[in-house]
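FIELD: query
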Amino acid sequence: MLLSVENLGVRIGKVEPLSSLSFTLDRGEILGLVGESGSGKSLTAMAVTGLLPLIGGRIAEGAVMFDGTDLSKLPEDRLRPYRGKRIALVTQNPMTALDPVQRIGDQVDIMARLHLGLDAKAARARTVELLTRLRIPEAVTVCDAYPHQLSGGMKQRIVIAMALAAEPDLIVADEPTTALDVTVQAQIIHILGELVRERGLALMLITHDMGVVAQVCDKVAVLYAGRLAETRAVGPLFASPHHPYTTALIDCIPREGMARGSLTGIPGLVPSVMSYPSGCRFHPRCPRADATCERTIPETRTLPDGGIVSCHHPLGGDHG
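FIELD: result
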């Protein structure tokens, strides 16, 4: 297994925004990490990539096992060779991810020069090859451009090229299509999927878009308020969700032929990390909640299909 996050707990100051988080990801797989804003998706990405100290955070418990090494135990100088070289991050907003005063080619070149030891000429040839592979026309000309001269979709392709330049084993893509229109979103997601299949990469795709997850992911980890609600293969999860929160997320997906006004939402809001409720954190919004849910944190149950769910009253049967 390339990546195994085991009982991960994250602390920032006196609060614990992530608790008891576990999932796995292997080469050639795409894991969708989903949940509403505030569920802990981006914080999970920072934990995996070792960036928590930038926001005053730390891994308080558990392990981040990457190819047999626990990254959570490594000091910064030993973690640095993993970050960028073997684990690449595609950040959330391509509009602000690039240095506005450096040319595009220089920003991509540096990854191959730093992590692969290529000289300037070889690094530029690799950059042009990557940009062409990512369907950027006139790649040589684009290398001489500045970020403000490119569209949002082009900038996102550049950020992906930077992630690929050092030939990583794992890409962590934190909502890579958030700022893009629907057509460009589809193109970017298709490109990421192709790269995983062709190169044998592992991709952790962080998103709030369950429609995207249904299209490209192999398995799904559903987060709510810093805890894992459900983890399963994508087919069984959409056919028969077991956690009420998963069901609620799926019900929020627009479908062709839906009657006007029939799209449902989830009542209430994701709680702040400063005000997590006792027991199951979803219970204030859950139609199945009872006194047990209010008092007791649900245990993780292993399902017959190999997935897991954390719920006192899991659902079963087909989801209509």
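FIELD: remark
The longest helix spans residues 182-199.
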